UniProtKB/TrEMBL annotation:
UniProt xrefs under SUPFAM superfamilies: Concanavalin A-like lectins/glucanases (SSF49899)
Organism: Sakesphorus luctuosus
InterPro entries: ConA-like_dom_sf (IPR013320), MAM_dom (IPR000998), MAM_domain-containing (IPR051560)
Domain MAM: 14-143
Name of the protein: MALR1 protein
Pfam families: MAM (PF00629)
Gene field: Malrd1_4
Superkingdom of origin organism: Eukaryota
GO CC, one annotated term: membrane
Amino acid sequence: CGESSDEKQDFSWDKCDFETNLCKALQESNFQPGWIRRNGQSGTGPPYSDHNGNESAYFLSLSSEMQYSSATLRTNVFLPTDEEHVCQITFHYWVSQRSGTLMVGLQKHSEDTVTNIWQVSGELQSQWKANTVTINSTEKYEV
């Protein structure tokens, strides 16, 4: 439901806001700069607050050293979905003038490739936006 009333009654869903960790997400490579956990008070440029306007709240950002490269962040492994158990991931994102393309992909455990399920490029500039992806998979997967 748009007003989230269905989530309030089911305690099996997992919420993550990056306040204490990376939410079980793993970077593809530990040897290259990539995603960093920071807040608006870090002084590294916009955004200067999270999507709620909180300057001390944490979010993930690409390292300033990533101007012409890509960085991948993987979730933990999710179990298969069915009609009763659907996976929805809601995330907030910030697109700045320097941004390239932000993509969300799905990799099923039986496949070697990542299927693009959502993406946005730099047309929405310097503002927080939100998106929800719904995932249906009959096998274990990562996002």
